Amino acid sequence: MSFSQRLVRDVFQPLILWQAGDYGQIRWLREFERTQYLSAEGLRRLQTERLRALLRHAWEQCPFYRARMEAANFPPERFHELEDLHQLPLVEKKDIQNHRDDMVARTWPRRDLLPNQTGGSTGTPISFYLSHERHLSRAAATIRHNRWAGWDVGDRLAVLWGAPQDTPRQDWRARLRQALLGRPLWLDTAHVTEARLHDFHRALHEHRPRIVQAYARSLLLFAQFLEAQRLRAYRPQSIVISAEGLEPHERALIERVFGCPLFNRYGCREVSVIASECSAHEGLHTMAEGLYVEIVVDGRPARPGERGSILITDLLNLAMPLIRYRIGDVGSWAEGVCACGRALPRLRSLEGRVTDFVVGADGRLVSGVFLATYVVAQRPSLGQVQIEQHRTGEVLYRIRPGRDFNHEEDLAYLKKTSRQYLGEALGVQVELVEEIPAEASGKFLFSRSTIAPAYLR
Ligand SMILES: [Zn+2]
Fold this sequence. Notes:
By secondary structure, the chain is α/β, with parallel strands linked by helices. It has a domain at 360-456: ANL, C-terminal domain (GMP Synthetase, Chain A, domain 3). It has twelve helices and 20 strands. It has helices at 3-19, 24-35, 40-61, 63-71, 93-103, 132-148, 172-181, 194-207, 216-228, 248-258, 368-376, 407-422; strands at residues 114-117, 127-130, 157-161, 185-188, 211-214, 238-242, 262-268, 272-277, 284-286, 291-297, 300-301, 308-314, 325-333, 346-353, 357-359, 365-367, 384-391, 394-400, 427-432, 447-449. It has a twelve-stranded mixed sheet, sandwiched between helices. A four-stranded mixed sheet has the order 19-18-17-20, with helices on one face.
């Protein structure tokens, strides 16, 4: 790290935070740097204490949780260990939409309710509140997880992502921060064209960012583009990618093209960073000091390796508690201990959103990423494809045909291979289109199913 960067990290950044009343972020960061090396038992104790305090607080302060805890005959004094939490029902996105104000702590100072909201990419946008303190601990958690990938405050950054959702605060502090930390180089993945990929490629060589942050599938597209054009890719120190499903050979392709390690990151707007890969690259450690993560199948805890629905309890947002929030993603736990020495529990993989899964004619469940890889990518003439599903055993393929598209042969192939993976009785419909737009978030969804499989609940 250069001297000027150390100056930014150790002097200017703390000074700006202190000026803004945000110095607590540094306190949280110091704490998280220490607690990441607690033993499994120590972490469990920390989580149990925080969960106990949260349940008592929710019981006393939040009408929504009070009613639920009473209905479940689960007052806070019946909580003894983490597993007891199973006695409470899940919180769905629609619960937040319908009962948000009853989830807010009654006597919490109004000026300390920072409004926030999710984008519409999941179809259920929700708005919620964070306390200022939680805002700070979330920022600290992100920096800790960035550091696992060798990314520190002040590092040059390039981003392949949707357009920024937030309009940054343009006061003098924001401007100073931007001047000191630099603006990231940005490729807006909502509007990717070949010309823009060329420009971005050139800009990377010029700007020389240390870190690249990207949507996994957008980065894959960029890697494929560079390879096809025989362009020499810029090599950053490391790449942090969103934990969307990537097949092992796709990940290998990205690593080969960019010649640097990839670090998976899983997070969301509601609770910020949930889990990240460490340098051992064997699963994603959860942000366990701030979040209690569960994976459930049919309402019971999933066994290691078994995929299920992810539930999150935010242990540090007392302004508006989220307890057993079903985030809509599917994942599984890793087994054993990590070589890096951290006992923070690890997710083995993220398998995508519940809505990414397509339900076959016989009820079997196949992930959209699998179909993208083994059905669509095997046949380049198909061009760009999106799957939509609204009824079990039926799929709609939306196709923007490739250059060598052959109507009869390509559609026959599509039907045949789809039935191979989704059942012989599968109904296949096709719609040819001029363009498949990305989501408002900039993310390109390969598949979207409105049939949430019951067993993932
Ligand atoms: Zn590790």
